[in-house]
Prior knowledge:
Elements: H1 2-9, H2 13-38, H3 46-62, H4 68-80, H5 84-112, H6 122-151, H7 153-160, H8 169-184, H9 192-219, H10 229-241, H11 250-263, H12 267-296, H13 300-317
Helix pairs in contact: 1-12, 2-3, 2-9, 2-12, 3-4, 3-12, 4-5, 4-13, 5-6, 5-8, 5-9, 5-10, 7-8, 9-10, 9-12, 10-11, 11-12
Amino acid sequence: MAGVWAETRRARPVLLILAFCVTALTYVLRAFRWQYLLAPIGKTHFGPAFEATVIGFAASFLLPARAGEVLRPYLLARRENLPATAAFATIVLERLLDLLTVLLLFGAFVLTASPQTMSGDPELFARVKTGGAIVAGAAAAGLVVLFALAGHPERLGRWAQKVERVLPARLADAVARSVQTFAEGLAVLRRPGHLLVSLVLSVPLWVSITAGIWLTSHAFHMTFGFVATFLVTTLLVVGVAMPTPGAIGGFHAMYQITVTKFFGVPVDRAVGAAIVLHAISFVPVTLLGIAFMAREGLSLGRMKKMAEEERRELEAAR
């Protein structure tokens, strides 16, 4: 730990401050993009969308099972008088757009990098490229499925009504309405131009996330280029997806593995940078989210209960 602390003290504070500012910008961009995805469902205001976004990410950091993914659309739907199931559908679409954008940025890295220009294992680099291609195919398939769901919400609702054969009629009707509402929440997919703009809006969002990673890494005297950071971003997405509270462990391990294996960074420096980057990425938004929760009269216990109830309703609708 002495080596990690020594590397942390050597970090350049100006770059860390810039990383903090750029990371804060990502939540503004997320709220703006979410408004655009919600536009076909109903009108929303930026303030409530931003607050719900921040509360959602804070809840995912503090509560298990990524509770914020369910709470965020529920809170905004309640405040802006939107169908909660349709609002949740935009979160599904948002995650798919995130995945597609990350893969696009990863593709830019793959096209400009070669094993000879990197300090790490060429075979590992080849395996990462193969994995990226597989995930890209899965993301494309997911987009096709969403197009199919969004194109015929009424037909999907009628199909869901067939569960009357195994469920009581009133329950079957409720399920059918919820499924149709969910499909209507994917209305943006029926507008190709709107969907394209949504994807374009995702690019500055993920470039800003990458900029925060790049600035933090350079604050710790790492020298890889900005485009090379797209590799770090892509693998950090994998680390954050690991089911650990607040992405603790998975985030740190994936960052450390990436910069040491691919860029030859010393372990102590990688560990120190991972800890600081995690703090910049999650602590400020969590504190702001807690402040927004307090203003709304929400406690963590109440939010956990709300998330569990909403999750059960969504599962019943599928």
